Each structure stands twice: as C-alpha cells, then as structure tokens.
Amino acid sequence: MSYTVLFTGLSLLAGMLLLSLFIGTLRTSKNNVIALTLFASLAVYCFGYALELQCFPLPVTLQIIGIEYIGIAIAPVAVFILVLRYLGLQTQTIKRLIPSLLIIPLFSQIVIWTPLIIPWFYEQAWMNTTSILPGFEMIPGVWWYIISIWNVLLLTISLIILIIKTIRNHDTNWKLSILICIGVIAPLLSFFLNFYLRQSIPIDSTPFFLMITGVTLFPAINKHNLLNIVPIAYATVFNTLGSGLIVLDNQGNIREINKEAEKIFSVSKAAVIGEKIQSSLQLGDYLYNIIDHSSGKREEISISHSKKTEYYLIDIIPFNEGDSKKSGSILMVTCISEWKQKEDKLIEYTELIEIRNSELNGAYKELKIKQDALKESEKSLKKAHEIAGLGIYELNLSSKQIFVSDEVLTIFGLNSANKNPDISDILKLVKPSYFDLVSSSFDSLIKSGIPFTIEFWIVRSDENECAIRGKGEINQEDLNGEKYVTFIFQDITERKLMEEEIQEANLEKEILLKEIHHRVKNNMQIISSLLSMQSRYIKDPEIQMIFKETQARVRSLALVHEQLYQSTNLNKINYREYIQKITKYLLQSHEITKGTITCSLVCPDIELTIEKAVPCSLILSELLTNSFKHAFREGQIGEIRIRFSFSSLSNLYTLDYQDNGKGFSENIQYKEGMGSTLINGLVRQLSGHISFENANPGVHYSITFPENMPEKK
C-alpha cells in the first residue's frame, strides 16, 4: 500500500507541475499551440496514471487507460514538431506534415474505445492486486506494439537529426540544444526501462521522466523563444540571402562567405576562409582599400564572368566588439546588372517621354485652340437653334441622364422650373389622335434604335394647339461608347397653317379651273351645235362640208377641255382615252357605215399637257377627216392605224398615222389644201417635224415633237 501512495503522489506531483507549465505557457505564448498540446498531453498521462493506481474495477480502469493513451499518443508527435521548428523547417511544411503524423494516434483511440477491435490493443487484461505495486496488467496486442514502435521511432528520429544538426553547425546555442536533447531522451529512457525491467521490478517510472521532459522543454520554449527565433535560422538566412555576404576581420582576413558570394567571385568557401581578401578575390585590393579607409561606404564595381560583365553594389558595414574598436567589416555584394539595364531603359524612356511631352504640349495647345473654336461653334449652333426654333432633347441610355435645351421647354410650353422633363411629360401633351404614332416611334428608337421623322399636334398647358415636327436617332460617343438618344423638335404651327391655307387656295383654284374647262367645253359645244344648225340651211355641198370640218375641229377642242375637267390633274389628259373618243365621234359625225372603216389604236397610258394636247388633237382631227373625206369611196372597206408613243431616250413623242385608202395622186401636192396648211402650222407650234409618203395603198404620216418645247422669244 505504501508504494501505491508513493507513486500516486509522484504522478500527481508530475501532473500538477506539467499543468502549471501549461498555464505558464498559456500566459506567455497563448498562440503556441504545439507547446500547449505537449504539456497538456503529458499532464493527462500523469493524472491518468495516478487514477490507474487506485485499482478501480477493470471496466473503469480500461476507460482510464484510454485517457492515458491520449497523452502517450500525442506527446511524441508534439516533441517531433518542436524539434523540426527548432531546426528551421518552414511553418507551412509542418502544417502539411501534421495530418499524416496524427493518423496512428487517432486510430489508436478508435481501437481503444471500440469493443469489437480492442483485442488489437490487448489480448488479455486483468487487475494485479498481489504485486508490490498493484495495478492494471495486460498481454499486449498487435496495435500496442505498433504505437509503441511509432512513438520510439518519432523520438529517435528527433534525437538523431537534433544531434547531427547541432554538431555540424558551429553557431548552435549548445545550452538550448542540450536542454532539448534531454527533453527527447527522457521519454525514450522511460520506455526502455519499463519494457525491459517491468518483469523484475514492477515499478512504472514514466511520470518521473515525463516531468523531466516538461521541465527541460519549458525554458527552451519560453525563455529561449524556441519556436520563434532560433540560431540555425541565422545560418539559413545567411546562406539563402539573395546578396553575397563576406565577413572580414580587422586584418582583412575572410572569416565567412556565403554561397551567393562564392558564385559572384567564382571561389569556394574552403579555398578563401582565413585568407587575405587582396589575394583571394577579384578586385580584392580595391575592396581592401575601401574598407581600410572608410568606416562605412557604398560603391559600384564590375566583374567579368566568361565574356560577360556584371555590375554589383558593395555595401561595407563595419562591426565593433566590446571595446568599441573596429574589429571587422561585412561586405554585402548585390548584383545590379538588371537594375543598370533598367536604368538605361529608364533614361531612354525618360528622353522619349520628354519628346512625347513636347509633342503632347503642342497637341494640347492645338487641342485648346480647337476646343475654343468648338465652344464658339457650339455657341453659334445654339444661337442657330434658337433662331430656327429647334429644341434638343438627349437621353443617356446607360446613366438615364437627360439634357434638355431651353427651346424644348418653350416649344412644349413646359414649366421652366423643371429643367429635365421626362419623356412621359412630353407624351402627356400629345393629342389623342397622334398619341399611338408618337409613343410607338419613341419606343422603337429607345428599344431598337430605329430612327424616325414624324409630325404631330400637341395641346400645350395654355390650351393652345401646336404642330410639332419630331426627329429621333441614336448617337454613340467615341470615348466611352455610351449611347445617347437624341430628339430634335421644331414648332411648325405657322407652316402647317400656311399649308392648310395653300391647300384650300389650291382646292379653290382646281374648282375654278374645272369650272372654266367645263364652261369652255360647253361654249364649244354650243358653237358646234350652232354650226350644225346653220349647215342644215346650206344647199351647197362644199360649203356644207366646210361647216362639218369646222364643227369637227371645234368638237376635238371641246373633248380636250372635257377630259381636263374630268381628270384629277387639271393640266394633263390621258391621251389614249382622248384618241378613242375623238375617233368614235368623227366616225359618227361623218356617218361612216359600221364595219366599213375600222380604226386600230396602239397607245400606252400617256398624259399630255394642255399645251401639247390641243395642237396634237387638231392634227389628229384633220388627218381623220381627210381619210374619211378623200381616202375611201362610199361603202369601201378600209382601215386606219394610229400609233402614239413616247421615247425616254430621245424625249420625243411620235404620232404614226396610216390608212389603206387610195393615197395621193402624183399630180397633187401635199401642201396645197387648207387642212395641210393647218397641220403644218400646228406641227410648228409643237416644235415638231412631219413626214408623209404614199404607202401603196394609202398614206403614212409620221409626226414627232419634243417633250419640252423651247420657250418662245
């Protein structure tokens, strides 16, 4: 019983000590998770072992054993990581190692706390109450050996690499290294003592050795700042620095040189350590003179490397020993070849920038002149808009910003206090009959970019109606690519009213012209009727024929005026319809038996002005009268062919007239009769040309005249 009390007290003492170390570390370095984990795991084991010695029933003791093994499994991993940190391994590398290091400890807990696989940990377990130190006994299983070997392996590797690094590095803090070695050796020694002597001496010395581990590692962690600044880190920085470093004593002897300096001066460390700088390095004399005559200096040097010259910056940093006398210097050699190239480039770019600045200054002055001119142009344009009454409304489709000229407010009669009216404010003023047109035009422009030009009426706020001409289009700026919708509005009320007045005047004129043509036609009809009545009292056949011919001429003119007042165009007639009517009339007036003489017409829809229609109609009337009177005998079957056409190439009208009658006698001249004289006069009036020939049988007339007759002088 006395051994149980003694070892229980020892275990509790060790646990309390380790707990105090945990609390001390928590106060001084609460972010040091590895150290806190180490002290916590060691304390857990010691308190667990103290409970194990109380000989609780086997199920309770097994649970206590499970708690103990939390500390046994975690502590070696924490020690291994501490050693790696001391040796300067990067934090990120250690973080990547931790998951793999914790695989076996975590699986051990699964084995211990899972009844199905706990035989892997121990094959048989019992409480030994007959021993000098009663307690838990077991026959180890396979997994107990695995975790034991794993812990020994971690501690052994930690000890070996610690010893090797300490021996190789001359700048190592020996006191700190010895403390860490003791902290690693203690749990190893405890394991071997328990494993080999437990059968002969049934005493567990593990709490005692774990207490040694905690006591030795605590000052290494806290007092010597083990996990933050380590001596080996200085050597790491010295050898991995991008600049070359050479340490000289006050005699100019090389005491240390890093790898970058070896590369720069093409030497090896073994060949130059302890040698004079003058005889060991390129430019050694020059460097020594600088060091000898200056307490601190910066110089540029150049060193040739296999047909290539590199440039370096030398910083001389003197250091003193305790008696404040100069005891040596550090030469920091930094390659500045790339900097020199960049400097040359910078000089080149600076010169180029100066040239560009000069060009930009010139361009700026020119731009300033153009901007001033543009401002003047804008003022002139604004003035022109004011004079022309043009209102500009711009809408930025991206930012929805609006620009509205004063003319827009004036045109729509909007309140001048609202400088940026919305599109809806304009639509409200549109008369209902025009609303759909205006609204759809605005939407098509804004949504689809379809430009428009429309005219519509509005009712302003003062109840006055105004006619507006609106034009809309999409504009795109060059600088930022933003799209603007531009509306241009103009008050066209006066123009619309004038157009209505002109339209009314034109309508009155058309009515008057139609009335005139109608009255002329009626008057000519009266003249024709008078001639017809008068001819009945004439017995002489020749005189009676003259009356008939005159009547035909009057009727041909009356038909022209009849066509004019029946036409929608009061200045032109459809000449095809006219030819059909005149031929029908003359056939009837000459009492031609139906079916004896036929008239065939080839004529497209051609419109003739009254200036051309009157003389052309008289010519056609004379030709038809001559054919009916002279070409055919009474009852003879005959044919008259009329072709009227227009050529856009020559701008000429052509009247081809042909009958198949008896034609002209050889002893009769064409120009002898009155009809021929009238025809020739009418052709001259048209500025045209006439030709005729005997067609055998019949005659053929061809009359051409221009579309645009020359002005009379």
UniProtKB/TrEMBL annotation:
Keyword list, A-Z: ATP-binding, Coiled coil, Kinase, Membrane, Nucleotide-binding, Phosphoprotein, Transferase, Transmembrane, Transmembrane helix
Q: Which residues form a coiled coil?
A: 357-384
Boundaries of every PAS domain copy:
234-275
GO terms (BP aspect):
regulation of DNA-templated transcription
Q: What is its EC number?
A: 2.7.13.3
Q: What class of enzyme is it?
A: transferase
Which residues span the membrane?
6-26, 33-51, 63-88, 100-122, 142-164, 176-197, 203-221, 228-248
Query: Looking at the record's lineage, which domain of life comes first?
Result: Archaea
* Molecular-function GO terms, alphabetical: ATP binding; protein histidine kinase activity
Q: Name one Pfam family in it.
A: HATPase_c
Q: Which reaction does it catalyse?
A: ATP + protein L-histidine = ADP + protein N-phospho-L-histidine
The name this protein carries in UniProt is: histidine kinase
